[in-house]
Design brief:
This protein is an alpha+beta fold. It is built from 17 helices and 29 strands. α15 packs parallel to α17. The protein is globular and about 90 Å long. It catalyses: O-phospho-L-tyrosyl-[protein] + H2O = L-tyrosyl-[protein] + phosphate.
């Protein structure tokens, strides 16, 4: 049951219910309810009547405005229908959603494109206020206007003669109310504010009692202005009668959260309000995000921050239609999924386009909405508060009801079953001339995030090479996003004799001063790996880079080595290598198993390495490698990300962390044992961290 007593069918997103926090409350921890990954896709359609319509939710297709018509505690919604082009039943039952998406993507997304193009653009309503001479300059784009029937109407201001509420056009802002799943006017969709509308924007925030602003664009993209900065970078700024003060900024890899204090200088007796300004910074300049997981994490954070009694969530991109529409539809459908076992993206886009024109602007955005919803449904709710992690892991470690599998088995098996998007390619890694540069052909970097080296020859020489040998920019290494910043890590394999020069050049070019080595001599087969660093007193030169062994320290469970690296221009840099050696070995001293002997010592290793990077002010990424740059490498990075997030958000979400890592490099956290070890590492960290608080 939810807080209103309604049956919840799919509680996978329970930790992100709007209203987790009260206005002014500092505790933002979710409640920790968990549904195992994929479980909501397997649930039976409970509480569905013989007519196929949920008794709690009845949709009225005659309501062309997309508004909510109340019947008791329920609301009216679109009835089932068929897509005019695909003949697919809409809404789509949750159990058929994955198959529906796969079918629609055949022939280069032909089904989705036809379905999207069949949706009415919605231009059946007047927009007279937008085209008034006094208001035209307030529109960022001349062809993106606000419908009259759903526009946000600001309280009129006094004219120059002091006549109350008589200033022409003062009630206008290019913004429209958008209905939510079970709440009218749940959102306000608006354009990126212009300098001449800054005061109007903050007046809207104040008058609507909104406490959350969602921003889906950067200020500038592809050298074009997308939105003007309407908040202060530091301190306070005055926008008309409204004072805005930057209180706090939290910048993460994919989004930024700012706390802004909003005060009305005309009503000094009214207390200021803390506004959560949530900016998603990972939307690419062109197209849509390559994977929806970071976007879903952002949306969940937005919902957790938005107080229950707050006004509409104000959402904008540049024009306030494309990305803004995608955000609203995804949130709307996730709310729907809590109470119904079906999804209706088609009907939802139709409905919101009757409130603001062109909402969901491209077929790519339409497809992205479907991918995001499937990702959310498949993954379940796996975010756990720090305080409940130990109890949660103990529960996961036991066989589940009517099953021989433990909860950890279920999570890991679900990860193994997830497929990377078909757009992922590894053409460079698999090129004939690069095959011998890979330790394993099953662990190679994707094209979109591979680490590139400068080409050794001009492209014209490469193109004319009869052997097709690129001689160039490939190394088996992937960029990996950290918790607080993009491209915080480089995940790579153990250097080989034919790639050792590339390895050192990669460290130099990308300013890597810290290397985490997760291999011990000898390996499981009794073989000794290639030593890619010079011996003391015997410097090595790698294609113009001179590497000199400086020092070595035995730290107990790891070795710390320092190297001085000098280029041909005599610029020098110190690179520190941390080799973790606390692995299980057999009676012959050969390493066995893929997890460390002791999780506490491994967490300490992770912490020491990051502290060293911070201590020396290193700006480049941390380079992490094991044999193939996947299993142990993924474990190290997963633990690092979990520790960072637990400290800031007070939650642990191992499943989503590993899923996101696997979308950046194959087989990250390769075995079930490594996956379980990450949980143990998180518990050990929280135990020591809480003791030190």
């Amino acid at each position: 049951m939810d807080q209103d007593g309604r049956p919840v069918l799919n509680s996978y997103d329970h930790s992100a219910i709007a209203g987790n926090v009260e206005i002014g409350c500092d505790d933002l921890s979710p409640d920790g309810a968990v549904l195992y990954p994929g479980e909501c896709l397997r649930q039976q359609p409970a509480l569905i009547s013989s007519t196929g319509i949920s008794p709690n939710t009845i949709r009225d297709s005659s309501n062309i405005y997309g508004g909510l018509t109340t019947i008791g505690n329920a609301h009216l919604s679109l009835s089932q229908q068929r897509s005019p082009n695909t003949n697919a039943i809409i809404p789509i039952p949750l159990t058929e959603f994955a198959t529906h998406i796969e079918r629609q993507k055949l022939n280069n997304n032909r089904g989705f494109i036809q379905e999207f193009e069949s949706i009415d653009t919605g231009q059946h309503f007047t927009w007279e206020n937008s085209t008034m001479e006094v208001n035209r300059h307030k529109n960022r784009y001349a062809n993106v206007v606000a419908y009259d029937h759903s526009r946000v109407i600001l309280p009129p201001e006094d004219d120059e003669d002091g006549c109350l509420g008589q200033l022409p056009g003062s009630d206008y802002i290019n913004a429209n109310y958008i209905d939510g799943y079970d709440r009218p006017k749940a959102y306000i969709a608006t354009q990126g504010p212009l300098p001449e509308t800054f005061a109007d924007f903050w007046r809207m925030v104040w008058e609507e009692r909104s406490y959350t602003i969602v921003v889906l664009t950067r200020l500038e993209e592809r050298s074009r202005s997308k939105c003007d900065q309407y908040w202060p970078s530091r301190g306070s700024s005055l926008y008309g009668s409204y004072k805005v003060t930057l209180m706090e900024t939290t910048e993460l890899a994919h989004y930024c959260i700012r706390t802004l204090r909003l005060e009305n200088t005309r009503h000094r007796n009214e207390p200021g309000r803390d506004i959560q300004h949530c900016q998603f910074t990972a939307w690419p300049d062109h197209g849509v995000p390559i994977h929806p997981t970071p976007f879903l994490m952002f949306l969940k954070r937005v919902k957790a921050l938005n107080p229950m009694q707050a006004g509409p969530i104000i959402t904008h991109c540049s024009a306030g239609i494309g990305r803004t529409g995608a955000f609203i539809v995804i949130d709307f459908q996730l709310d729907r999924l809590r109470y119904e076992n079906s999804l209706d993206v088609y009907g939802c886009v139709r409905a919101i386009r009757s409130q603001r024109q062109y909402m969901v602007q491209t077929d790519d955005q339409y497809i992205f909405i479907h991918d995001a919803l499937l990702d959310a449904a498949q993954s379940g709710s796996t975010e756990i508060p720090n305080s409940k992690l130990l109890q949660h892991v103990q529960t996961l470690s036991r066989p589940q009801l009517h099953s021989e599998y433990t909860g950890i088995d279920i999570e890991f098996n679900t990860l193994m079953s997830l497929r990377v998007p078909k757009c992922y390619r590894a053409t460079v890694a698999n090129a004939t001339y690069n095959i011998n540069k890979n330790v394993k052909l099953t662990v190679v970097p994707w094209d979109f995030n591979r680490v590139e080296l400068p080409r050794q020859f001009p492209k014209s020489v490469i193109d004319n090479n009869e052997n097709g040998d690129d001689e160039g920019d490939y190394i088996n290494a992937s960029w990996i996003d950290g918790y607080r910043s993009r491209r915080s890590y480089i995940a790579t394999q153990l250097p080989m004799a034919n790639t050792v020069a590339d390895f050192w050049h990669m460290l130099w070019i990308h300013e890597c001063s810290i290397v985490a080595m997760l291999v011990k001599q000898p390996n499981e087969q009794g073989e000794r790996f290639f030593v890619y660093w010079p011996s003391p007193g015997y410097p090595e030169n790698y294609n113009g880079l001179n590497v000199d062994f400086v020092s070595e320290f035995d730290m107990g469970h790891y070795w710390l080595r320092e190297f001085k690296v000098t280029d041909e221009a005599h610029h020098s840099r110190t690179i520190r290598q941390f080799q973790f050696i606390d692995w299980a070995v057999d009676c012959h001293g050969r390493a066995i198993g893929d997890v460390p002997l002791n999780s506490e010592r491994f967490v300490d290793f992770v912490r020491q390495l990051h502290q060293t990077k911070q201590q020396f002010g290193s700006v480049g990424p941390i380079c992490v490698h094991c044999l193939d740059g996947a299993g142990r490498t993924g474990t190290f990075i997963a633990v690092s990300l979990i520790v960072c997030r637990a400290q800031l958000e007070h939650v642990v979400d191992l499943f989503t962390t590993v899923k996101l890592l696997r979308m950046q490099r194959p087989n990250m956290v390769e075995t079930r044992e490594q996956y379980e070890f990450c949980y143990r590492g998180a518990i050990d960290f929280l135990s020591s961290w809480e003791e030190g608080c």
